[in-house]
Design goal:
The protein has a six-stranded mixed sheet with strand order 6-9-10-3-11-12, sandwiched between helices. The protein has two domains: 238 residues, P-loop containing nucleotide triphosphate hydrolases (Rossmann fold); 237 residues, 3-Layer(aba) Sandwich (Rossmann fold). Helices cover 34% and strands 26% of the residues. It has 18 helices and 22 strands. The two termini are 33 Å apart. By secondary structure, the protein is α/β, with parallel strands linked by helices.
């Protein structure tokens, strides 16, 4: 049995303060829920305990004794195991290998002891055998598994450590009801054995079903700890929001949606991987926000509209004309643009000059085979200047720019030839405050000029400050629409957590 105490944990990444003051007291034989909005500091606090993040200040005590957790191996040696929100599996290895990857059994000091490995793995898998689904076994390669099955492997990996202190960072996000119920049965058993468990979840029903105590983190600070039996959902949400329930005041007020404006984008009965029965309209000059907890289908809907993901049902109408959107090429030709927050995966051409990164959409939309460099440079400079992009020359490689300026390049490429609809999929992810300010100033200008904009952001303030309406997503569907004075931080949280 282990008791864990964290006092005054602090972590900054440059000018970004991820954790201002993290406090947590974890007792043996309890499930301690950690809750807070996206970016509040929950995961950072857990990574400090797990040794994958080194704090700038604060102390960690295990059974009353100060400890220094120099890395993940040191954490394991101290009896701390973690399930990471971002899956850390080796895709080409088997389920058994992944479960015991940190400590594979060997024979002769060199070779993996396959018989021992598979026997140990089968004992862990047995707890989930009847809910894991077809094709799940110790020797199955992880790359062939479904998302829920991969998440089960990550859970098994944490359970296999047999650590006295276990941390689960949103472990149920991809699981079905039967899998969640089985996981909770196991947690209750471990709790009865005296294990100390930190459990992060955005689902209120799960929090009240499994938790003993709950600690709320807001804006990087621990603000409250309560016994689950002595609190309720409304109190927890108020603690998460604090006093800021009113609509945050933007630096420039968002445009007021006018119902008389022409509809530029209409999506009806839209269903596909990760979303179902989604419907909405976007008027010219409107910024429509997608809100809700992270990973509830917002990005999938955008990518499907853009043709980067398939959709099985529903219709897409752009400027009054129906489109199948079978590919990004078709979406671009129809006047649709898509900007991803994952610029390394979906945006920049690594190592190539700025000019090459700026002009591929211009070539595609205008079906160009050749173009004058001077003419291209002239067209490329205008959106760069509008975004206040900092660079030396269009010939320099994009990797030489800061993250914020790289994202400005990705946005600028769509503005050389103005689209009718701009889909922004968490566009400010990982960029600094100054770059965010420049981006949103331009986004509001584009809306004022009549462009239809759909904005998903994992930061609630960005939605509240900039969106005319907010559609709250949960489990792939729209559960509530917030308009006018209803666009408050409290209502946004309440809609997301109530549905969850």
């Amino acid at each position: 049995m282990s008791e864990l105490l964290i006092r005054g944990a602090r972590k900054a990444y440059g000018a970004t303060l991820a954790l201002r003051r993290g406090d947590l007291h974890l007792l043996p034989g309890e499930v301690h829920v950690l809750i807070g909005s996206n970016g509040s500091g929950k995961s950072t606090l857990c990574k400090i305990v797990a040794g994958s993040v080194k704090p700038d200040a604060g102390e960690v005590l295990l059974d009353g004794k100060p400890v220094t957790i120099a890395g993940p191996q040191a954490a394991r040696a101290l009896g701390i195991g973690i399930f990471y929100q971002e899956l850390s599996l080796a895709a080409r290895r088997t389920v058994a290998e992944n479960i015991y990857l940190p400590a594979l059994p060997v024979k002769s000091g060199v070779f993996v002891d396959r018989a021992t490995l598979e026997e140990k793995a089968r004992r862990v898998i047995a707890d989930f055998a009847d809910v894991a689904g077809e094709g799940f076994s110790a020797d199955t390669p992880v790359e062939t598994l479904r998302a829920d099955q991969r998440q089960l492997v990550e859970i098994m990996k944490a359970l296999a450590t047999e650590a006295p202190v276990l941390i689960f960072d949103e472990p149920t996000s991809a699981l079905d009801r039967a899998q969640v119920d089985r996981f909770f049965e196991i947690l209750r058993r471990l709790k009865g054995e005296g294990r100390a468990i930190i459990f992060i979840s955005h689902r209120m029903d799960e929090i009240f079903a499994i938790g003993d105590r709950v600690t709320v983190i807001r804006d990087g600070e621990t603000v409250a700890t309560s016994r689950i039996a002595e609190t309720d959902q409304a109190t927890i949400i108020h603690q998460m929001v604090g006093e800021r329930e009113e609509l945050a005041t933007p630096s420039v007020a968002p445009a007021v949606h006018a119902t008389s404006r022409a509809t530029v984008l209409s999506v009806q009965d839209f269903s596909g991987p990760g979303f179902r029965n989604v419907g909405f309209e976007v008027a010219k000059g409107e910024i429509l926000g997608f809100g809700g907890l992270h990973g509830q289908g917002q990005s999938s809907v955008m990518r499907a509209i853009f043709g980067a993901l398939p959709h099985q049902a529903g219709s897409i109408t752009l400027n009054g004309k129906a489109h199948a959107m079978r590919s990004p090429r078709e979406a671009i030709a129809a006047g649709c643009a898509y900007v991803s927050g994952d610029r390394r995966r979906d945006g920049i051409l690594q190592g190539r000059p700025l000019l090459e990164n700026l002009t591929p959409i211009h070539f595609l939309r205008n079906r160009l085979m050749l173009a004058r460099p001077s003419r291209l440079r002239e067209r490329a400079l205008k959106p760069l200047q509008a975004l206040k992009t900092k660079f030396q020359a269009l010939e320099q490689p994009i990797n030489s720019l800061s993250g914020g300026n790289q994202q400005k390049i990705v946005i600028a490429r769509w503005l050389i030839d103005r689209p009718d609809v701009l889909l922004l999929d968490d566009p400010t992810k990982g960029i600094d405050l100054a770059a965010k300010t420049d981006l949103f100033a331009l986004i509001r200008e584009l809306a004022a000029e009549g462009m239809g904009i759909v904005l998903y952001s994992s930061e609630d303030a960005e939605l509240l400050n900039n969106a005319d309406r907010i559609l709250v997503f949960n489990s792939g569907s729209v559960t509530r629409e917030l308009t006018g004075a209803d666009r408050t931080r409290y209502n946004l949280y309440h809609a997301a957590y109530e549905a969850a």
